[in-house]
Amino acid sequence: MRTIISIAVFLVFAVLGVGLAVLNNTPVTLDYYLGKWDVPLALVVGVAVAVGMLIGALVNLLAVIRLKRQIASVRRQAAKTAAKRESDDMRLVPLKVAI
Asked: Is the pTM of this model over 0.85?
């Protein structure tokens, strides 16, 4: 079910993107330090959206990596605490002497 919804959302955005490109095909002048470039407005908007998505994905990736490292650290600390607690509990068990 989730896959169908994902495909439907993708198709809606694809149709909207194509509509945007068709309606905004007028050329705009892109001025930069080394010169000028006449490109369609839809291309400028599309590149800006793609760059924004890439930056967002990179920021998200960095956050995920940081959280995974934090989870690994907490798991190591929990394992050490469990091992220490087990060894402390073993010290408290009285010895039975067989006669």
From this structure: no
